[in-house]
Write a structure and sequence with these properties.
By secondary structure, the protein is of the alpha/beta class. It contains eleven helices and 19 strands. It has helices spanning 31-43, 61-69, 120-124, 134-147, 175-186, 220-231, 280-290, 367-372, 377-386, 428-447, 511-527; strands at residues 10-13, 22-27, 46-51, 150-151, 192-193, 196-197, 235-238, 243-249, 253-261, 266-271, 274-277, 316-324, 339-340, 355-362, 387-396, 405-412, 418-423, 456-460, 494-496. Strands 7-3-2-11-19 form a five-stranded parallel β-sheet. Strands 1-10-9-8 form a four-stranded mixed β-sheet.
């Protein structure tokens, strides 16, 4: 056991002139942090300081043009710097260290978890049950859907909506979707509209959703820009300021944080009445571990050894095929999927790994690349009417393995944070189910008219984008790290609000569920 000690930092105070305001520190600037800030500032008289390890980022039309016309990867320079990779769980490229966090390049897919997802242990024997249930979270799901500007089918009651309406109607199915839908119908596989954070008032479907020029796809970056304008000096965002340690007053009370000012190289500190860790699963875990002290010798919240354990993610699988003939010149119309099937995201499939999938139809040769390569209109037209490509892709639930763990690596990243060490085991049942799901994709593609010899399949390991479980929620500190209010067991004012608190990951993307938890936590803190 090693206790890492920061040198004596230069100390500053938060809200020195705001005597009647509650002082709050939030670590991270992603979706959870932004949604929480919005609710805290709306409902309470507080002064908030946010810390982001990465730099600020200014959006602009020129960046969008470079992204579109030159195929520039706008975000590569903000990628994680883990130094240590794992063959079964990757980090590089999956997380962004910048203002707004990983929502700057996310797909915006926002399905709810289902009621059975909160009862994995009871239903299957794997993992752990949540200490809250679907009904506890349902009203906060509805609030998150409004704040994130989500489009969806309000009439689809699986999972139950209890009358809640999406703020925007669902995206209509495309002509390409209809080809996939015909195949699903013939195979008796259910489907529906994808829910996606794409603000219907602003979205003009440019097809470049990873860098939306209209700020229609929800990003914490845009949300924070608006909050800074709206609330002025009640909100301070410190970029290039990685938090290196949580400072404790004894075992129960968080006093504040130490942080590294990357602009000056100085180590500084700040105090507050509440400290909320919203820095994602990997960094939230490492921060608790690196903050070990004489009262918490193995890391804050880690007396029972659960900090860093139970790592989970989403294995991804896909299949691609070519269908002869495309007289209607069908091509992918949108920059996001409008069709989703949760047929295999059901209690029946939970014991072996639930899964959702989507699909798209396009020309096998990218129209954008053909245009940039000066391919003639006649040649492009001939290619398009000759064939079409149908792609299917999905994510499945991963069961935690006893070996799964995140711990501190040796050395530091370019942000001055500890490197990441990941140990992962793989359940054979997950591997078997993944192969079964891939064969389902193949069957759908054949039914949709794809030539058998054109079909290709593949799978990707989980990565940091959906990493979960390492500071899991529990009733007792013997079984996890935070309680039902996301408060670190045994502390009065230290919280974790990231995917790390998920006791199980389900099949659905995690961001909406995290947003609901963030709103729920902000309500709890405002009432304290």
């Amino acid at each position: 056991m090693v206790i890492l000690v920061d040198p004596t930092p230069r100390q500053t105070a938060i809200g020195e002139d705001k005597h009647n305001m509650k002082s709050i520190i939030i670590i991270g600037s992603g979706a959870a942090a932004a949604l929480m800030v919005r609710q805290l500032l709306k409902t309470g008289d507080c002064q908030i300081t946010m810390f982001e390890a990465g730099p600020d980022f200014t959006r602009g039309y020129r960046k969008w043009l470079d992204f579109l016309m030159r195929e520039n990867n706008l975000y590569e320079k903000f990628w994680d710097d883990p130094r240590v990779e794992n063959e079964h769980f990757g980090l590089r490229g999956s997380r962004l260290f910048m203002k707004g966090g990983t929502t700057n390049h996310w797909g915006g897919l926002t399905p709810r978890f289902k009621p059975e997802d909160f009862e994995l242990k009871s239903r299957t024997g794997f993992g752990a049950d949540w200490s809250i249930n679907y009904d506890d979270l349902a009203p906060y799901y509805a609030k998150a859907e409004i704040l994130m500007g989500i489009t969806g089918d309000s009439n689809n009651d699986d999972p139950p909506r209890y009358g809640a309406k999406y703020p925007f109607p669902p995206t209509s199915f495309t002509l390409g979707d209809m080809l996939i839908i015909d195949a699903l119908k013939s195979l008796d596989i259910s489907y529906g509209h994808m829910s996606i954070a794409r603000n219907g008032d602003r979205c003009i479907t440019t097809g470049t959703c990873n860098y939306c020029p209209m700020n229609a796809r929800y990003t914490a970056l845009y949300d924070l820009e608006q909050l800074q304008i709206e609330y002025g000096n009640k909100l301070t965002l410190k970029t290039e300021s990685p938090v290196t340690k949580i400072r404790m007053d004894g075992k129960k009370s968080a006093r504040g944080v130490n942080f590294l000012n990357l602009k000056t190289g100085a180590l500084e500190s700040m105090e507050a009445e509440d400290v909320i860790v919203c820095s994602g699963t990997i960094e939230s875990t490492k921060l608790l571990l690196v903050s070990a002290n004489q009262d918490w010798p193995d890391g804050i919240g880690n007396d029972s050894g659960h900090v860093g354990r139970h790592l989970m993610g989403h294995p991804v699988m896909f299949a691609f095929g070519v269908r002869p003939g495309n007289p209607d010149k069908i091509h992918q119309e949108l920059g996001f999927d409008s069709l989703i099937s949760r047929h295999f995201d059901s209690p029946e499939y939970q014991p072996k790994g639930k899964m959702w999938f989507s699909g798209s139809v396009s020309s096998p040769s990218s129209l954008e690349r053909q245009i940039l390569s000066n391919v003639s209109r006649a040649d492009m037209n001939a290619k398009m009417i000759s064939e079409m490509a149908i792609s299917l892709g999905g994510e499945m639930e991963q069961f935690e393995h006893t070996e799964n763990r995140v711990s501190l690596g040796s050395g530091t990243t370019r942000h001055g944070l500890p490197t990441t060490k990941i140990e992962v085991g793989v359940h054979e049942i997950n591997l078997k189910t993944q192969r079964e799901h891939v064969q389902t994709f193949v069957k759908i593609l054949k039914t949709a008219g794809c030539k058998e010899d054109s079909i290709e399949t593949g799978a990707l390991n989980p990565d940091g984008a959906h990493a979960s479980g390492t500071c899991r929620m529990s009733i007792s500190d013997a079984d996890g790290v935070v309680n039902t209010n996301l408060q670190v067991h045994g502390t009065d004012n230290l919280y974790v609000c990231s995917n790390a608190v998920f006791p199980s990951i389900a099949a659905a993307n995690p961001t909406l569920t995290l947003g609901a938890l963030a709103i729920r936590l902000s309500e709890y803190i405002s009432k304290k």
